[in-house]
Amino acid sequence: MKNLANIIIYIAGLLWTIETLPQIYKLWKTKQSEDISLTFFIICVSGYALFIIGNVILKQWSVVIANAFPLMNLCIINILIIKYRGKK
Q: Does domain 2-84 have CATH number 1.25.40.70?
């Protein structure tokens, strides 16, 4: 049963990673971020980071790994939002 739970966690992590790719692509392609909420993405990064820290403490490694990649994508989105803010 634990193996099934790990598989489900990894699939969720993969889906969370994939969900951010269209936003990264659009930011990179258009080089515009005025209509995107930086506050939203900062809160998302904070939530993922705290979730990962808590699971490191609990030694829930499958959860840590599954959430590390979406966290990296959210950080990339934050960087692109800041980089392209005000550029037209």
A: no
